[in-house]
Amino acid sequence: MPEHVGTNPTARRVGVAAFAAVAAMGLAACGSSSSGGSSTVNPGAGASTSSDSGSADTAATSFSVANVSGLGNVVVDGRGRTVYVLTKGTTKNAPCTDASGCTKYWPDLSLPDGTTAATAGSGLNSSLLATKQADGETYATYNGWLLYEYVGDTAAGQGHGQGVKDTWGTWYALSASGDPVTAGTPAAASTASSSSGSTGSSPATGGGYGY
Q1: pLDDT tens string for the chain (211 positions)?
Q2: Are 168 and 105 in contact (CB under 8 A)?
Q3: Does residue 150 contact residue 84 with C-beta atoms inside 8 Å?
Q4: Bridge partners for 181 per DSSP
Q5: Three-class SS of the chain
Q6: Half-sphere exposure of 95 (CA within 13 A, CB side)
């Protein structure tokens, strides 16, 4: 009958040594993995957010006039995006706040920290460009109107927010003279306005954007 391994002292010593070596390597691997996990952080999200924030910060630093299809010559911000003003009945600058959810769809144009005024670019009447202080922020105004972008516009030269009617009022692009552009409303915005009227709650969105 063969001798049982468990009764062989030499085999027992070899087995213990091998187990100890494997255990040591396992601990080292765990330590390496833990260390690598804590020091390797994907910077992609942070970098993207920083880049987006930087682009947004430039929006209110300058304004000019550009030709937007269907609207003609209207005021655009530093990113080339069409700017909009909010009307409601005879009220100028109807409220659009973070608390109401309005600025989620219509981002307001506040100046970045350290900037006290916006620059008037091509076609703009510099005497109409001013600022307004509110909630610790400085906002650009044109002819007294607070200015907003629209999230449905994803690039310069778009005017999907023109004529949109929603919970907060009716939105219009702004002419170089500082008056709301009420003519030339794109058909997409008109359709969205009717849709909003039927729901009475969700904001209307032009150009096929839904929220």
Answers
A1: 444 444 444 444 444 444 444 444 443 444 433 333 322 222 222 222 222 333 667 898 999 999 999 999 999 999 999 999 999 988 899 999 999 999 999 999 999 988 989 999 999 999 999 999 988 899 999 999 999 999 999 999 999 999 999 999 999 999 999 999 998 655 444 434 333 333 333 355 443 333 2
A2: no
A3: yes
A4: 173
A5: CCCCHHHCHHHHHHHHHHHHHHHHHHHHHHHHHHHHHHHCCCCHHHHHHHHHHHHHHHHCCEEEEEEECCCEEEEEECCCCECEEEEECCEECCCCCCCCCHHHHCCECECCCCCCCCEECCCCCHHHEEEEEECCEEEEEECCEECECCCCCCCCCCCCCCCCEECCEEEEEECCCCCEECCCCCHHHHHHHHHHHHHCCCCCCCCCCCC
A6: 5
Backbone angles phi, psi at 166, to 5 degrees: -145, -165
Q: Is residue 105 exposed (0-12), middle (13-18) or buried (19+ Cβ within 10 Å)?
A: buried
**CB distance 129 to 120 below 8 Å:** yes
Q: Cβ(117)–Cβ(168) under 8 Å?
A: no
> Which of 101, 70, 97, 38 is CA-nearest to residue 172?
70
* Pair of tokens at residue 43: 């910077």
Quickly tell me which residue has 């255990």 as its tokens.
23
